[in-house]
Design goal:
Blueprint: H1 9-33, H2 38-49, E1 59-60, E2 63-64, H3 69-88, E3 92-94, H4 98-120, H5 134-160, E4 165-168, H6 173-191, H7 195-224, H8 238-263
Parallel strand pairs: 3-4
Antiparallel strand pairs: 1-2
Length: 272
């Protein structure tokens, strides 16, 4: 077969098969070495991205959730924002108006202020603005998640689709307000600390970690192989998504490994 500089079909199928085998082996290896059970796997995902401090997490009985209150809010907020935009305004890739960007910045700023205020509490006697609580961590984390979704959604659409709309998904404060209200409602459900709510929250929030990392790394893969704006249907994205998932899994494995080497436990950090 004459070489044309383009990957030939046999070679393409070989690369695709090798990628699937590699990611499958990677996933099985991670499943084998991480704590048992669905919550155990969720703990291992949270372990890679979150401090999982016991006192700063919601609990299922005596068991802290895989992500702290702030990270739970952030990843759930991002997932809510992406799902809402994709279901109501698919393939909108325009960046939000400056007024929306200001609102998203304020959500992110509240996350930063509350996070810094909470961080200084780690040092006895350090001055702080107010006494931090898990409800404030959850709410400001959720706001940060919405801000992330507001920027990630158009960036993903601009990178992936051959045809996309130049208008912004979040094109007015009313639309953003609906996203905020939906998120606050779900936050209020979480604050009941009902196990029937917290269990799915534990699973969905950690799924969100993998989902967001996969989206970001899929974009990176497409840019590296120069395949931006080549896709018309989601089924055409299967291989780039598998590659993105594989890179996300590598990141989780490496962070899990480094943290376990230094701590020798799958538990979160303990204060005091």
């Amino acid at each position: 077969m004459r070489r044309t500089g383009i990957i030939t079909p046999p070679r393409f199928w070989l690369l695709k098969s090798l990628l699937i085998i590699f990611v499958t082996i990677l996933a099985i290896s991670w499943i084998v070495v991480t704590p048992p059970g669905l919550l155990g796997k969720a703990d291992a995902i949270g372990y890679a991205v979150c401090h999982r401090i016991d006192s700063r997490s919601f609990h299922l009985g005596e068991r802290p959730l895989p992500l702290c209150a702030r990270c739970s809010g952030m990843f759930l907020g991002a997932l809510i924002g992406l799902i809402y935009q994709a279901s109501t305004r698919p393939r909108r890739a325009g960046m939000p108006h400056w007024s929306i960007l200001v609102a998203l910045f304020l959500l992110a700023a509240s996350f930063a202020v509350d996070g810094l205020n909470s961080y200084v509490q780690l040092f006895p006697g350090a001055p702080s603005l107010y006494e931090p609580h898990n409800w404030s961590r959850l709410l400001t984390g959720s706001g940060m998640g919405l801000a992330v979704s507001g920027l990630l959604f158009p960036a993903f659409n601009q990178t992936v689709w051959r045809e996309w709309y130049s208008t912004a998904a979040i094109n007015n404060l009313g639309y953003l307000g609906i996203m905020v209200l939906i998120t606050i409602f779900l936050d209020l459900l979480i604050l009941t600390e009902n196990p029937l709510i917290l269990y799915p929250v534990a699973i969905i929030s950690t799924f969100s970690v993998v989902f967001l990392l996969t989206l970001v790394y899929t974009m990176v893969v497409l840019m590296v192989i120069r395949r931006e704006n080549k896709f018309d249907h989601i089924r055409e994205l299967i291989m780039p998504l598998i590659a993105g998932f594989g890179i996300a899994l590598i990141q989780i494995i490496l962070l899990d490994l480094v943290r376990y080497i230094f701590t020798g436990t799958w538990d979160g950090f303990h204060l005091g």
